[in-house]
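hey so i finally got around to running both of the ones u sent me last week. sorry it took forever, my laptop kept dying halfway thru and i had to restart like 3 times lol. anyway pasting them below in the order u listed, first the sequence line then the C-alpha cell line for each. didnt double check formatting much so if smth looks off just lmk and ill redo it

first one:
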Amino acid sequence: MGVSFSNGVIYLGFLIILSLELENPDWESTIDQLENEDAIRITPIINGEEISEEELTEVYDSIQWKVDKNVNFRMEQDGNSILLFPEYHHFMWFTSTGEIGLHLEMEGKYPNEFAEIDFQVMIHDLPFWKKWGPPLLIILLVLLALIYIIEVIKNPRFKKGSYISVDKRMIQSG
C-alpha cells in the first residue's frame, strides 16, 4: 500500500505535483457482501491540496485502472474524489478472493502531468458449502427433473412378453 507519483511538471514557472491518495487503505469485504460494501475512495492531490471537482471532471476520462485478478470495478466521480465500486466477475463463483492488487493511473490536464497508485484490497472467501451449495443443489434438481422426464417418455407401454395381434376382417356390403 502506498502512494507514488511519477513526476512533477513545471508549468508557467510553477512546479505542479500530482498525486493520488487512498482514503480507505484497509478496505476489505466478504465475497457475498461485495456489491453492498462502501466504495474505495481515492482523492487526487495537486501540490498538497485536494483537486477541485471541476478539475477532476476535466481529467476524469484519462483515469485507467488495472486489476490483477478476476474482480470487476465500476468507477464514479463523487465531488473531488474517485470512487471504485467492486463487482462480481460475472457471478460470485467466478470472482477471485484474497488480496487483490489494483493499479490506478491518472493524467493531468498539463502535458507530462501524471500520477499513479498501487494498493491492495482484501476479499474474504466463504466456506465451500455456503458458496457452492446453492448452485450445486440447483444443478442436482435440474438433473433429477431431466431423468424423471426421460423415464416417463421412455417408459415401456406393454409388459414384457406381451404381443399385439391384428385381425383383418373384410366387410362386404351388398
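and the second one:
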Amino acid sequence: MISALNLNAQSSFDIRIDNSVGSTIEFSWADKIVPCVDGGYFLTGLYFAGYYIIKTDNAGTIEWSKSLPMTNPVDLFPSEIIATHDSGFYFMSNIVDGMFGTYIYPTIFKADKFGNFQKAKYTPFNLFGTIGHNFDFGDVDSVTNELLLHGTYYIYNGSNGACCYEHFAFKLDTALNIQFITRLDNSIPGKYLRNDPTIKQVRINNQLAGYLATGLVDVATNPRNSIINFLDTSGNLVWTREYTGVSISDFVQVDSSFYFISNRPTFTTAISTIVKTDLTGNIIFSKEFQGVEPIRTESIGLSSDSMLLISGQYGNLVPGPFSTLILKADLDLDSIIAMEGVLPTPTHWIKSTPVESSTGTFLISRVQMYGNSRKAIHEKVEFDNSLCNYNIIPVTTIPFTLTDTIRSFSNVPYLLNSYDTIQAFIPENFAFSSPCLTLDVEDVNGNPDTHFLNVNPNPASDYIELTVDDVESSYQVTIFNITGEAIIKIEMEGNDRKISIADLSRGIYFVNVRTEKQQFNARFIKL
C-alpha cells in the first residue's frame, strides 16, 4: 500500500499511496500532511476501502500506518487531521450519503501519538431540519489542546429545491465537549457560502486574545466578498468586517498584523492577492501577485526568520495541468522568491501547508491522474535545500485597491449555550467506536516481514554498497534517475552487494530492492 520511492525527486521526502481496484484502476487520495509536535508527520487521505493515517519521522521513514475501513467506501468525503500539543492529533472522517453527496456525517476522533483513538463523537445528519454538515479544523490551543472548528450546516427543501447554508464557529475540549458554538452568518441562512473557511487563535503578548474566523458572502458577483469575524475567548462576536471582491482562503498573524491571502477565480484561472491589516481589520496594504502563468494561493505561514511562506497552484486550472507553487517573501512583499514543482503527469488536486522552520518547510498533499486512476502523494519540501528540484519562476506584486466595510452584525451573538442544544449538535452518548468503523493496524517496525535497506557510502562517487537485513537469498535491484527512468536493473544474492556508479552523472538517484514478499527503497547522491 505504501511506497516511499520518490520517482520524481521533487522534495525532501515523497510518500506515495498505491491502491488498486480490480486489476486496472488505482485509487488513492491525499488529504493532508501535518507536523507532529515531538517530530515527524501525520499523513491522511482516502483509498478505495476507507481512510488511512500514517506517522513518519522527520526524514519520511514510516513509523506506523493505520487504515479505517468503511462499509460504503465509495461515499467518503475528505478527512481532516491536526496535531495536538501532547504529541497526538485530532482526526475527522466524513461519510457521505445521497446521490450527490448531500448528507455528510462527520465523526471527530482524539488520538494519541500512536494513533490510538481516545475519544470520538458522531454528528447526526437531521439536526434542526438540516441534512448535511461539513466541518473544517482550524486551530489547536497551545496550552489546553482545545480544538477550533468552522462548521457548515446544509439545509435542503425537497419540495422546491431551495437550499441554504448556516455557518458556526466551534470550540471543543479534549473530551470533545463543546465549549462554545457561535453562529457566524447573523442568523440569515444562505448569507455565507462554504469556501475555504477557517478559524484561528489570536494572541497578543503571547496571551490568548480571541479568535478570528473567515467566511465568504453569497452575493451575485464574481469574485464574492469575504467576511472576517473576531470572537472573544468565550466565543462572543466582537466585530465583523467585509472585504469587497476578494475570496480569502487563509491568514497568518505576524505580531500586531494579519496577512490574508485570497483568490479572484474565473473558470480557468485565478488572480491571487495578499492583504495586510492591523488586529482590528484595518487595511495597511493590499497587493496582487503577478506571474507568467495564473497563480492560486491557498495557504500562508511564517518562517522562524520572519519570512512569509505561501503555497498554492501555478498554471491554468482548466484544462491543466497545474503544478505546486511555493514562495518566500519579506513582510512588505518587496522581495519574493518563488518556485514551481515540475510534474511529469497532471496534478488533479493540491493541498499544501507552510510550516515554521529556518529552511522554509512546505508539507504538500497532492493527487496525480493516470487515465482513470488517482494516486495520493505526500511531500516535504525544504525551500532552502539545494537538493530541492523545483524551478525558480518570476513572481512579483503590484498594488490594488481594496475596500472594506464594518458590518452591523449584532454584538449579541447567536450563541448556542444551553446544555440541551449543545448536546443536540454533537451528542454526548456517542460511543468510542461505531460498529461500521473497524481499525486495522500495520505496525511497520513490528512486522517480522519488514526489512531495512542501507546505502553506503552516501554521497558516493565510484560505488554504493547495499545492506539489506535478513533478506531472501535473491532479490531484484533497480536504480532510477531523477526523472523516474530505470537506468540499472540487476539480480542480486546475499546480504551485502556493491554496485558500480562511476558511469552515472552527478545528481540524485533512487534504489529499489524488490523481493517476493515486499519492496523497499532508498535515495543516494552521486558526486
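quick thing i noticed on the 2nd:
Residues 233 and 437 are 35 Å apart (CA to CA).
anyway thats it, ttyl
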